[in-house]
Write a structure and sequence with these properties.
By secondary structure, this protein is an all-alpha fold. 68% of the residues lie in helices and 0% in strands. The relative contact order is 0.16. It comes from Hygrophoropsis aurantiaca. This is Mitochondrial carrier.
């Protein structure tokens, strides 16, 4: 395995050996939570668009013609509130996700050092950082699935037609049974109501519907996200170190370097793991948009993936990918800009 260049004393994120383990953990949780919360407020309308595009892959007629059409019609029909439908769940999810990711990533690096009998001050190689990132993503996936289940269900609420009873005295019985009128303002259940509904109908285990997709996405994505960020950031600092003829460390990363390396990481993460996310979103919205009926077995990851591929091929598995990658670039830049900035300020 190739180690980081000796010319740069590169310190991996969270590996400050001068801090106590408890203090490092508090910093990782706090800084990660703040970064996740801020980025989620920025990206939520685009995430909602992604989920709605993913959820229509198996429909015979698409509701939306693309991401811009989805954004425009959501804003036109539901207003700004509609663009932020389901926001509380992903806010909690983003805080939990980033806190868990950064904490796990930091601690797993120390575990790797212990396994390989490396001192805490020694830099890890990129493959070792990828392993730590994958482990952090796998751990985080178990926290994310229930939160994303609630989020996805709320993001498609307005796509579910609301039948309105019509008197059989004015319509035939067959027409009355199928008649429905497009909705205007509706009272929709909030995140707690959606959570309790899932719990009542499917039990505790039902909260982890789509866990396979989340696990694949977060494990592979965690490895790609952290490794890409470390790689790009390392070379930006190394280049500046050569120019200034000064020995620079990880803590010397500039805000624009944090943002640029984070932006690259966000694009790589989302593009590489997008099909797994598409299948997960389809599974988590099936009950609302394509109900199977009472007593039917829940959808499976492999079965849903096959159905999506059969319906639209690779294109179906990448529905909404463009807008997701586009929003993930600034969003990931924001996360690392805030996390690295707070780490520098409160080191």
């Amino acid at each position: 395995m190739e180690t980081a260049p000796d010319a740069l004393a590169w310190e991996s994120s969270g590996s400050d050996s001068e801090s106590s383990p408890a203090l490092r953990a508090v910093k990782d949780i706090t800084f990660g939570s703040i970064a996740g919360m801020v980025s989620k407020v920025f990206e939520h309308p685009f995430d909602l668009t992604k989920v709605r595009l993913q959820s229509q892959v198996l429909d015979s007629t698409a509701r939306f013609n693309g991401p811009l059409d989805c954004l425009y019609r959501t804003w036109r029909d539901e207003g700004v509130r509609g663009l932020y439908r389901g926001l509380p769940a992903p806010i909690v999810g983003a805080m939990a996700e980033n806190a868990s990711l950064f904490l796990s990533y930091s601690e797993l690096q120390n575990v790797i050092r212990w396994v390989y009998a490396q001192p805490l001050s020694q830099d890890l190689s990129l493959p070792q950082l990828a392993l730590a990132g994958a482990g952090a993503g796998a751990i985080t996936s178990f926290l994310l699935t229930p939160i994303e289940l609630v989020k996805c269900k709320m993001q498609v609420q307005m796509l579910v037609p609301e039948p309105i009873p019509i008197s059989t005295s004015t319509l035939g019985s067959a027409a009355a049974a199928t008649a429905s009128i497009p909705t205007n303002p509706r009272l929709l259940p909030g995140p707690i109501s959606v959570f309790m509904s899932v719990l009542r109908s499917t039990g505790f285990s039902g909260l982890w519907l789509g866990q396979t997709g989340t696990l694949i996405r977060e494990t592979g994505g965690g490895a790609a996200w952290f490794t890409c960020k470390e790689f790009v950031g390392m070379h930006l600092i190394k280049r500046r170190s050569k120019t200034s003829h000064a020995a620079l460390t990880r803590k010397d990363i500039l805000p624009w370097e944090s943002a640029l390396s984070g932006a690259c990481a966000g694009g790589v993460f989302n593009f590489s793991m997008f099909p797994a996310d598409s299948v997960k979103s389809m599974m988590q919205t099936e009950e609302e948009l394509r109900p199977r009926g009472k007593g039917a077995p829940p959808p499976t990851f492999l079965g849903t993936a096959k159905a999506m591929y059969k319906a639209q091929g690779i294109r179906g598995l990448y529905a909404g990918c463009g807008i997701t990658v586009a929003r993930s670039i600034p969003s990931s830049a924001i996360i690392f800009l805030i996390y690295d900035g707070l780490s520098r300020k409160f080191a």
